[in-house]
Amino acid sequence: MDILYNKKGVPLIMSCSGAFMSTTGSPTGITPEEKKKLIQTVDTKLDQDFLKVSGINLLSWNANNDFPQWADKIITSTGVLNTGLKFIRNFTLGQGIHACIIDGYDDDGNEILKPYPDPAVQKMVSSRVSRRYMERVARDYFKFGCGFLQFIPNGDGSKIVGINPLNAYYCRLSDRDKDGREKCVISGKWPETPTQADYKARDVLMEYDPEMDLDIRRFEGKAKEDTVMVIRDSWSNKDTYGEPIWLACFLAGWIDIAKQVPRYLQKVYKNQATWKWHIQIPYSFWDKKFPEADFNTVEDRQAAIDLYMDEVEVNLLGVENAEKPLFTHYAINDLNGKVEEEWKITALDNKSKEGDKLVTSAAANSEILFSLMINPNVLGAGMPGGTYAGNQGGSNIREAFLVNIANAWIDRQNFLDPLEIMARYNGHQDVVLRFRNTILTTLNTGSGTQQNLA
User: Got the DSSP string for 335-377?
Assistant: First the structure.
């Protein structure tokens, strides 16, 4: 208990050990200058910036040629965006790949699939090499809008023996020549411009038909050289560097809101004064309780009051004293009938409404998930009330998950293309690859999940 006394030893202001008082304030959040700088980082103009590296005319990946690095900072600092992107990556890749042949169609037009007769193909698509490629290229595809991979041939170029994912952090693409061909410059120096000793340049397979391009290279005697293939999200209409779908949510400001609410609440909880009770004690009480004549010095009187108030604090505050009654005494003036020496205890209303900020945060999180085409309820992010409430039932979650899987078809085919190209280049012309899915079902089917190929 800290007490401020006047010269006569009368307490003026007290603060007990259970109280926390500090300067109140509100977070500044992101400054307008910082916001302007971030917006400039996103390339929304039609003109394209170029840079030269040892005679290769490269297209800058947005204004500062650092889009993957910039985007990754946004993603890793926004929890729901980071989790949502990983969720998309995981359900898109399903539970493994099966090598099949199409053995006709049933009456409903569905494919009749049979296992591919050569077990070496299934071994290839189930290998660590294929799984590593899928996981990492899908990561960059959803985070940055582009994924890069490298085909590794054997010594004479007759077969492709490996498929290696390239980190999008370190890949930049050249301008296309008159035949529509481009190069990929790989360097750990990006976004700084590398010297000739710090990069490798590789031919990029033509997007129109990369499998045909490989056959042409084999005919031209270039099959021994490794090549790069780019998997792009074409929705942005950017032909060289695709843009991720979450970028629209950033430009709309929802990602900033999702990040500012936690910072605001941290500031509030750190800086606000959390007083619960206002206790008013009349000065006359101290004259009656601790008369000056009973003490030799002012210091002795202060020590007695300190001890008394410490006992009050110990007896009234804390969990063990919850709902405890308080007994006090007061006097009534015989002349005017007014109450004197009465303690007044008033409950203080907390004016800070942090719960409103949580609703705003939930709305921002939902908008981010909507931009990723994810139903928030699938991740348990249903709103407790308001516009997006009432859709948290098990059936809605199952249907939303099925919609996600159905909607993933085009992305899945993009990721399967390199594996099918590799298999056909190696002589397996009739192979088709299909993902295995785990489908959520109702309990009346006898199980909680079913599996199928898609």
Answer: TT--EES--EEEEPP----HHHHHHHHHHHHHHHHHHTT--GG
